[in-house]
Amino acid sequence: MVPNILMSRNDGLGARLIPLLSALRLAEATGARLRVHWPSQDKRANVSHYQGLFDAAFCDRYFITDDEAKERRLRIIGASRFQRLTRQEFIAQADAEYDYFVEETGGPAILQGEDPAEVARAYRNAMGLITFTPRIREMMAQIDAAFAGRQVTAYHIRHGDVTSSYRARGKAWPNKYVPPEIYLEHMRQSGTGPDRPALLISDTAASIDWLAARQDGVLRLPDLIQLDDLDSLQFDFLELYAMSRAALIVAPEMSGFSRVAAAIGAVPIDDVGQSLTDASMDAAMTALQQRLLNDSGSFLNDGEIAQSTVHLRRWLDRQDQPGDLSELLDQQLDQGNTVPLMYRMRAEDAYRAGDAAMLAEIAHQARDAMIPLPHVLSEIDTMQALLHLRAGQADTATVLLRRALYHWPMQAFTAEAVRTWLLADPAPTERFYPFEPMVLDLVSLSRGAPQKRVDMRSLVWEIRQFLSSTFRGPLIAAGADADLRDRVLAVEAQDSIRGTPAERSLKSFRSLIEIEGPDPASALALSREMAHDAPVSENRWAAQRFAINLLHQHKFQRARFWFARLVEAFPDEPVYSGYLAGTIMRDGENEVAQAHFERVNPPGEPLRYPVFATRQIQLLDRLKRENEADALYEQLLIATGWAETHVTGAVRRALRQDRPFPHLERLTRLAEEAGPHRAAGALVAQLLHRDGHHDEARQRAQSALDSGAVPAGDLEGIRALLEATADNPTTRDPG
After folding, report:
1. Strand bridging mode 76-78 / 99-102
2. Mind giving me the DSSP string for 517-562?
3. What's this model's pTM, rounded to 2 decimal places?
4. Which InterPro entries does the UniProt record give (predicted)?
5. Is it true that domain 431-572 has CATH number 1.25.40?
6. In this predicted model, what pLDDT tens digit does every residue of 3-47 receive, in sequence order?
7. Which of 70, 130, 376, 728 is a plausible cystine mate for 340, CB 3.0–4.6 Å?
8. Residue 37's beta-bridge partner residues?
């Protein structure tokens, strides 16, 4: 049977074309069947309108639906594994029951023993295997004619996505965003002018305008060919194709858009951030610093200010002037810049200086600003935890680290923090999350070496049911779950492990991974066997994993039995009481369930384990203890940094029960800052409507609906709100 190569990438156009060309080349070279998953659920993203780019016959032949892709993901083999095979081995050994998955954007996927030069040629030729629509083919021919005989340098200026997308604004992207001052100095250094023109390609017209006002010889694509009646994706592709016709591409280090253009056109590419002389870079950074201090209104938005500050930080660090950056960050925060990255950078400055008081203040400010990006809050909390660990304050550090991992466990500081926490002397008395240390470094164990590192993926597999999310996406991405499973099997096979309690423990850990795979029944049977292998008091980890797997498979009665045994054997571990309470609540034993919830999150104390709070709030409402539920929701919002899922739940509950929501002003500010891609606008509209502000409510509701930012759970309420009239404003309850 013919094996399948599956290509999927949920990203921009360039980052999708790279693995698409790789997959086309591999399918051509091996005779495999190609399947293309082109995620397009978000109709606001231009990549969802691919029918205007690819010919219908091409789509019919290769493209699969989201549902089919979801089913296929259960049986994928990542490129990192099958690339170990030669072409002949792949043809001989590839299993038709599996999909060989290609999503990498670093360049062509290469099989063992392939000639890189030949791969590059075939990768380039794979462009000819794509059938475009007649209109696109016509425009490509016009671009070929416009570039014939011309030596043009193409500059790719990537600014829009990493400065305006709210989720992107929580991270530093120095290898994606490069300030205009650096591009300007590169053009001057390269002699750009009327005789050496530069074609500027950007997702932000204002960035091109800024450069064109300061540099002669600048061209836009419409200066070369007529571009009428094109949609956004078609225009983006034609810009990419035009870059592939240039003599040189100058771009940020990380730009799939530029890399694929360079590959299909065999065009050399320069990293704009690494191409300047020291003198030119100093000139660019000096100009940037002055603009940040004196003309911040000239930037695209607060997000561009944040990304520019990242570049300035690098330069100031090399000049040994980090204090200058702290002053700039304080100035921006005082002026109301609430881009999450600004808080993260200011926190890192305090962390570098060992200033725990300042770091705590920044953490407070970040939560008060309702930053809706959990990884930023997690990083700030983890930095605080590290400072407290170094000061010997292990219990305070435990509280912060527990909260940090709840938000986002896989970030820059967590592995170091967990490793430091494990070595704390004296050991903390404050409870953390229950996990078995043996699973933290399976790489070393698989090699027969002592453990010396913390693999956060392993830890997250162990504790993910106690966190804000199961983090399934990053845990299984590109076959990461299969790789970890292979490591576990390698350790199980060692002579020193076989027949010992460690083998039992490893098998039960493996069941946590396999329960997400194509045969969850076998995984559950394996974990059951390991849990029954010894008394719970001597077999904690296998019992814990079996109980969690039972919950995963919705076998709530059996899960109740096993969590009750864990509570009895380990009464000092509060999370077992939390899950036991949830199973008891399902049986209607409300007072008993509440008693167990109070063991995990004692009343009158700061919230310890937010994962159980929403169920406890439901239970308190069921018990008609609404004021206690209100207080617990308030604690939950503060503990989670006003996480969107909990803000949404709190507003819906207030609407449903006609209870007050005391944070409308704060929520309104978030709606105005976060842009159209978040739910806050729809929530504000419904609260305003309920409170009698009908005109403003309708305006906000229509804006949210037009931008596609209304969650499914609020759609009926928003439509009812818009149907209401001034004479009859409550035709239906918007809640």
Report:
1. parallel
2. SS-HHHHHHHHHHHHTTS-GGG-HHHHHHHHHHHHHTT-HHHHHHH
3. 0.83
4. TPR-like_helical_dom_sf
5. yes
6. 889 999 888 898 899 999 999 999 999 999 999 999 886 666 788
7. 376
8. 8, 64
